[in-house]
Amino acid sequence: MKMKAIMYYAPKDIRFEEVNVKEPIEGEVLIKVKAALTCGTDVKTFKRGHPVLIKKCPSGFGHEFAGEIVKTGDNVNGFNIGDRVVAANSAPCGECFFCRRGEENLCENLELLNGAYAQYITIPKNIVQKNLIKIPDNLPYKLAAFSEPLANVVHGISRTPINEGDTVGVVGIGPIGLMFCALAKLKGARVIAMGRNPLKLKLAREFAHADEVIDLKKYNNPEDIILSMTEEKRGLDVAIECVGLPEIWERMFKLVRRGGCVHLFGGCASGTSINIDTGRLHYDEVNIISVFHHTPKYFREALDIIASGKIDVEKLITKTMPLKYAKKAIEMHGSGEAIKILLEP
Fold it and tell me: Rounded CA gap, 274 and 246, in Å?
């Protein structure tokens, strides 16, 4: 059986090709992809490769998707042909040092899944068992596909000390930052969204319903305007970084009040470092957290939030394109012309 798929050969070299469908073996299922989304991680991988996601080339590409089960291997329990499902891009082993301590996102044997930019994708046994979920009949595939990126944010928010009435600032309002803003609002926070892209600033208002939206291009010293929007100009209760640049990480510590929290969520390039005023950490008791990835628990919570309509993720879809234009879609996402692009096989 053949299918059309985007195959990753090297940085900036992805190709729309006809390839063989991997038939499901024991415990696996074959899904017909109904909707796939572009992602910032895929943009980074497209530009410079990824030692974890892309272990050999050519490789399947893409990891945010939803679809319909069309074939199952032997001994698949709880799923049938015709089921509408969404799968996470990973599953923990359940047995390593970290899994035994409930820190499944840090699993030493985390199984990763690529290949969503295709007509079909085969889901490994461990992901079928731990991170494949049926979606409600009335939920469009394109919305269910947001479950994986939102799961990261649900995890991040759950570990961030946000209380009702707190002032929370989010720097970097791509899809992840916008979802952080939306979930912080759901927790009763007053949210200040900060970015530079006009499309993202618009969605900070219309999607995330941020209380204040700051165009960072307008200010030489944005810290001053941000502090002026906080109680007694003391600083943010929580500052969340969703950019992933060391120089932005460092600036976050200028934004929080004494006793506040800096959440460094944006992943920086390996080998980079930052300088921190130790007085801020010790005498001002500024807390630091940094949350990575998601777990089966947060993946399910994300789908529940989407299905409930508490946040309208459809607003984050800028454009819909056929699968064969995936390269153009990735480039548009990376340049800031789009928040998310829906690819339809």
Answer: 6
